[in-house]
Amino acid sequence: MTRRILLIVGGGIAAYKACELIRLCRKAGIAVKCVLTGGGSHFVTPMTLAALSENQVHTTLWDLKDEAEMGHIQLSREADLVVVAPATADLLAKMAAGIADDLATTLLLATDKPVLAAPAMNVRMWQHAATRRNVARLRGDGVTVLEPDEGPMACGEYGPGRLPEPEAILVAIERALGGPPDRGRLAGKHILVTAGPTHEPIDPVRYIANRSSGRQGFAIAEALAALGARVTLVAGPVSIPTPAGVIRIDVETAREMAEAVAAALPADAAVMVAAVADWRAEAAAGQKIKKGEGGPPSLTLSENPDILAALAASPKRPRLVIGFAAETERVVEHATAKRQRKNADWIVANDVSGDVMGGEANTVHLVTAEGVEHWERLPKSEVAARLAARIADAL
Ligand code: C5P
Question: Which protein residue's CA is at the shortest distance from atom 21 of ligand 1?
Fold first, then answer.
């Protein structure tokens, strides 16, 4: 049976991305019927949406020909899912308050189907207490509100508030619709992934870092989301795009990462791929350290929290805790000891003496309580897909 969504296109510059979303949905075999708000019609035309969806587009309550038949009620119920993209601050506020003063908001109040909202707005609007409140209330009401992407905005500012990419919205739609066949093995599971390096400040302009690119962790987050998991990706400073359907939390330091991990619990599984800095400068200078006559300054280090070990020891320990071990010698031996020392269920060990860090491929060994598996050299995406499949088996 054809899966059907009702797509409400709100008034924001990101409305143009709704066009691409329609195309992707159609390609995935999902039928789309569009409702364009008054604001939305300033950015895209009904003609564009009609051509892409190959369906009539509705714009006002009064264009539903025969209201004697309660056309708006029918429209709100004939789809399997109602999607709001872009969901403006105004639309979210009206949804949260139950206001029904145009076709879109009336449908949202009248529907008996699940609702998914993909917000897009200026960063300050997204962070405003009123929007935070509205989003929390909507989530409490059972509406799936996606996290917006972070980046440069049309208004010239920078931060969270960009509409998630259409591919990511499609993943969320697929998940809300129960997932396409064979992609829902991790549906209903929440999996936490850490990725990338951490940066530990020495002063406002200098920091301690490592060569981790974040690629393997991002690939794992993507592979888990592709199996239908709800994935929270806590990412250190890296410049790679957020995988489709993944909720990303950006952090800089190990201590920020530890906090973000704790805040994301509970989770069914955790895959700690991040190359967390073992040490930080004991006291980061408030001002740039000047080159002085007394010679180079000395740097006193202190130890960072071990996020993996703390998670494995926590009362909220996920059922499956997976660590990574980057080693340059005696890889399996060190990984086996690490598994026990940190109380992880599995350790994925890799030899980073070559070009693994920042490279595209990886040779890994999976160390579990049952023994060690040696995987052949594989692209990082393939390592991720295999690991995701193993996680699905285990959960
Ligand atoms: O001890 P080592 O750093 O080699 O352990 C690597 C594993 O531990 C990885 O899974 C890494 O994400 C995690 N780790 C951590 N917090 C630290 C250090 C490592 O979560 N401070």
Answer: 306
For residue 344, the ligand 1 atom closest to its alpha carbon is: 10
Token pair for 196: 């990338």
Are 46 and 57 in contact by the 8 Å Cβ rule? The answer is yes
Kindly tell me if the per-residue pLDDT of 17 is higher than 90. Answer: yes
pTM of full prediction above 0.70 = no
The Cα–Cα gap between 62 and 72 comes to 9
> Phi then psi for 166, rounded to 5 degrees?
-50, -35
**Is 274 touching ligand 1 by the criterion CB < 6 Å?**
yes
Distance in angstroms (rounded) separating the CA atoms of residues 297 and 289: 8
Tokens of 375: 């995987």
Identical topology for domains 3-176 and 190-394: yes
The count of residues in the chain is: 395
Alpha-carbon gap, residue 362 to 375, rounded angstroms: 9
Which one, of 87, 89, 84, 97, lies nearest residue 128 by Cα?
89
Cis amide leading into 180 (omega within 30):
no
Q: State what percent of residues in the chain have pLDDT above 90.
A: 74
| Ligand 1 contact, 323 CB (< 6 A) | yes
Span 3-176: which CATH code?
A: 3.40.50.1950
Q: State the average pLDDT over residues 332-347.
A: 95
* Residue appearing with tokens 């999902």: 30
Report the atom number in ligand 1 closest to the C-alpha of 254. Answer: 21
DSSP-derived secondary structure letter, 384: H
Q: Where are the domains of the chain?
A: 3-176, 190-394
Domain 190-394: what homologous superfamily? CoaB-like (3.40.50.10300)
Ligand 1 site-directed mutation target among 276, 304, 342, most atoms within 8 Å of CB: 276
Contact 266, 249 (CB under 8 A): no
Distance, CA 237 to ligand 1 centroid (Å)? Answer: 16
**Is the pLDDT reported for residue 26 higher than 80?**
yes
- What tens digit of pLDDT does each residue of 121-133 get? 999 999 999 999 9
